[in-house]
Design a protein that fits this description.
alpha+beta; 11 helices; single chain; 13% strand
Length: 466
């Protein structure tokens, strides 16, 4: 199985490079079988499509723009339908074409419009290209360029951009491509929710997103047809991806556990399920026990007993470990929480969708990832001033605020779906956590949870099995 995985990964790298596959294109390859395992740092992940196979002739794999990109250029099945730095680096090293002196770095993902740190970057030599695409190569970050809305409650008064490009006309935002699988759990589309439209369905939102991505990322010359949009969205909605094998715990559906992508297909979910303020359909109160897929491993026995018990303990910690939530815009500055300065919850306060782990309603939050104190030298720093109060804030990414224009929305982002985490490091919107252990450390420090080293290991053991 591992050899088959490598072979299909090689074919998918071709898609990422924009290489031609002949007159028939992807139709010569036809399909990718369900449950094909792809290796990652802690085991193997697989995808199941409810269509019965992954159709490589779908528009998702076709060149619909003008710069050679396809959806699969940034959403590889071998990377949890996102991208990882190691795979981006492999594409950079493998691609050619003779346009430049050494022919390297020409894969379709490497395009100046948003693959480079600046659209004005020098790409004339190999050294220059490594520098120009450094954020993509090291963290798997795509540059998103957006203006400050003219009606915003704030103004941009200073820019510190290491790449010398950003301004209020086009703020440079570096973000990870979100996975195009397990979309049944979605409540908002894109990190900043810019493809989430009031009163519309997720299906509608994804139709618009597929077209916007083609016009933007792929620099399409004309909008997609309705049929092309429907085809892409149907393909994506059929995908279900999860870890199936953990190097320590073994098979993730063994001994009564319900890991792997199969159970995701039957998992009940809808907008507002298990919301903090009551289930939107049943009116039932919020249940903090969000994940239950490893309940059977609480008292596991056998050769992998210790590893499986660690996963079960991690699941319990995720569901129940008390966290004093403070300084979170979207929670602690919203009166709907009653006493917003003193909210005691758990990981599942925000990650509340049953066995999905994202928020079941639109709820962008600022947990401090973009604070100036957490800035790394490779990120721009933006200084904003409130037009009414004169208040000043500095962030590396204003998040939702560039869509809504609201001062209080600066730094707010949606939480991602947590399934198939092991396949798509690094984590957070800006790739600031290289590993799941680093992500756990961030939360432990940010909220002063007081996790022991054993508890951290148990949490990571659980998260990497999702």
């Amino acid at each position: 199985m591992h050899q088959a995985s490598i072979a299909f990964h090689s074919l998918l790298v071709l898609a990422a490079t924009g290489a031609s596959l002949g007159a028939q294109g992807w139709s010569d390859l036809l399909r990718l079988p369900n449950n094909l395992p792809f290796r990652n740092a802690s085991g193997y992940a697989t995808t199941i499509s409810t269509a019965g196979h992954i159709d490589l002739t779908n528009e998702f794999f076709r060149n619909l723009g003008t710069n050679g990109r396809r959806c699969v250029s940034c959403h590889l099945p071998s990377a949890g339908w996102s991208i990882t730095p190691s795979q981006v680096q492999a594409v950079f090293a493998a691609t050619g074409g003779g346009v430049f002196d050494d022919g390297l770095g020409l894969g379709a993902i490497f395009r100046l419009n948003d693959g480079a740190n600046s659209p004005n970057a020098d790409v004339s030599t190999l050294t220059a290209r490594r520098s120009a695409y450094s954020m993509l190569l090291t963290k798997g970050l795509i540059r998103v360029g957006m203006p400050v809305p003219p009606t915003a409650e704030f103004e941009l008064i200073a820019v510190d951009d290491p790449y010398g490009f950003a301004s209020d006309a086009e703020v440079s935002l570096f973000r990870r491509p979100l996975p195009t699988t397990n979309l049944k759990f979605l409540s908002a589309v894109m990190w900043d929710g810019r493809e989430t439209f009031a009163g519309q369905s997720i299906h509608f939102d994804l139709l618009d997103q597929s077209n916007g991505a083609t016009l933007g990322h792929a620099q399409g010359a004309s909008p997609l047809t309705a049929a092309q949009r429907e085809s892409i969205v149907a393909f994506e909605m059929a995908l279900h991806t999860a870890q199936v094998w953990d190097d320590r715990a073994g098979s993730l559906d063994g001994a009564g556990a319900r890991g792997g992508p199969g159970p995701i297909i039957d998992q009940l979910t809808y907008i507002g399920i298990n919301d903090l303020f009551g289930d939107s359909r049943t009116g039932a109160p919020f249940n903090p026990i969000v994940f239950d897929i490893y309940d059977a491993w609480t008292h596991a026995r056998g050769n992998a007993a210790a590893a499986r018990q660690a996963v079960a303990r991690g699941q319990l910690l995720f569901n129940t470990r008390p966290i004093n939530i403070s300084g979170v815009s979207g929670i602690n500055d919203e009166d709907i929480f009653g006493n917003p300065t003193n909210v005691v919850g758990s990981c599942t306060t925000c990650h509340d969708t049953p066995n999905g782990g994202n928020h079941s309603v639109v709820a962008p939050l600022n947990i401090g990832l973009v604070d100036a104190a957490r800035r790394t030298p490779d990120l721009p720093l933006y200084t904003f001033r409130n037009k009414t109060t004169g208040a000043i804030t500095q962030v590396t990414d204003p998040g939702r605020a560039l869509i809504s224009g609201r001062w209080k929305h600066i730094g707010r982002f949606k939480g991602p779906i947590l399934r198939d985490l092991a396949a798509r490091a690094p984590y957070f919107h800006n790739g600031s956590a290289a590993t799941l252990a680093a992500a756990v450390d961030f939360y432990d420090t940010r909220f002063d949870i007081g996790l022991t080293s054993n508890e951290k290991r148990d949490l990571v053991a659980f998260l990497q099995t999702l």
